[in-house]
Description:
Structural class: mainly alpha
Number of strands: 0
Strand content: under 5%
Number of helices: 11
Amino acid sequence: MSSTTPIHRAPDSPSVRQALALAGVFQAASLVDELARTGQVDNRAWDTLIEATVDTNPESFEAIYGGHPNNLRRGLETLEALVGRKQANPVVLRYGFTILLVMNKLRTNSDMMDSLGQHLTRIQGQAEHFSPTHENVIASLGEAYQETISTFKTRIVVQGDPSLLQSRMMPERVRACLLSGIRFGLLWHQQGGRRWKLVFQRKALRRALDSLG
């Protein structure tokens, strides 16, 4: 996605950029829930997350999510629930907030950040050879998550159909999706996002969502 010209330039507004990055977090949370319960995911939403995770040096902010907010539509809809406009899925919200918690632990652990960066550099080579969403790349993303983030005491416990969760490539897909949530969480923090703002600045988030349609 990063090789294409962005279709829709993101406003310079910090709150809008925070909303877009946060949408990536909650899109990952939503897809993890969908994978765990049904084994299926929306391909556009999935491709957006995985390509953002593999491309660690995008040419612009917009390039991270493929140039158009609709690529994060699933996550933006979850944010609508977060600000009280839609019915919230408590499991998805729990995953999203736990991703942010784990992201903060990762952000302050320079050794683990370095280790994850090395993993992702190798995975980029794989993605160029195959494609970002090839199962070999997904397996490597899952392994990177398992060897780094899953070693924290704070764990993201995924609930769902046990037989599905143990099926071929499902653990790797779930971990790759969680890793994409961490990636967008780091982006959210870089754009000035903070957990307390989600409590005290909901009006700003609502306005940002309105501007994104």
